[in-house]
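Re: the multi-chain job from yesterday

Posting the exact lines I submitted so nobody has to dig through the queue logs.
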Amino acid sequence: MTHNQGVAGSSPAGPTNIHSIETYRFIIYSNLDKFKKYLESNKQSWNKRTPIHIKSDFYRNNSFKKKINSLKSIEIDSLGDVRRKSLLHLQCHFGQDSMSLAKMGAKVTAVDFSNIAIKEAKKIAEEINIPVHFIESDVLKLNLDKKFDIIFTSYGVIGWLPDLNKWAKTIANHLKVGGEFLLTEFHPFFQMIQDDGYNYFYDSKPDYEIESGTYTDGGEDLSTTTYWWNHSLTNIFSALESNKLKIIEFKEFDYSPFLLRGMIKREDGKYILEKRQKNSTPYVFNLKALKQ
Ligand SMILES: C[S@@+](CC[C@H](N)C(=O)[O-])C[C@H]1O[C@@H](n2cnc3c(N)ncnc32)[C@H](O)[C@@H]1O
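And the result, structure tokens for all chains:
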């Protein structure tokens, strides 16, 4: 895998070294066109990865279809009782979490921009008879003309988005006043530590990776080019707070619930980087915001 910083050419210089919320508030990203070719390449990569993920031991889809419980305790504890609540799941991949939320009693609408992921999600949901309304859309262009009680998104999502202000607007536009937004995501510190070459602060010029295989088992012949935007914690907080999403909870976790590259098992369901065994490290964070 190659990891590169700063794709040449197409984007104006981005706001590197953003050290304060105030600075970030004055930066407006509005034009998605300049990101089009990156987002298209990402979409094709997710289309190629999805069939491999469905067959992988990582996602254990056969066992999932029997138990329908892919969610981890971090997000379950934060979500609380979702029964009869309308819930919008963003970047749902092939829908395991969406179906798990529906099984827990939520009325789920789930969105992803990968047409293959959405097609497969619909197939699985039909096979196991779990009602979820799956929609193919770029999160940054979503306009459902409907407001939800809860919006949820998790694990490996925001780095695919070039514009967190647009993302936060999408969330605010689809959440009822008093509704909750829940983000469970890999911690930017962990991402910096896992591989060399990651920056911490946002730059509109994406990092790119030419990757053989994917993060699951399988797909040895797969080759993808993906584009990625780092988002500092300031970026995330200020994008939400500037869009009437008041942060009411922020927690950091010293383990990953997924066994990822370079990790060893600390205990059941808790994984840490082998090279950081002696050092405490934030792997995941959980954030809850309330729509004002
Ligand atoms: C790591 S997966 C989501 C994680 C999910 N928890 C899982 O493991 O099933 C990231 C998902 O984001 C989707 N995605 C990436 N960029 C997107 C965008 N701009 N709009 C909508 N979906 C996007 C991809 O298609 C992929 O399904």
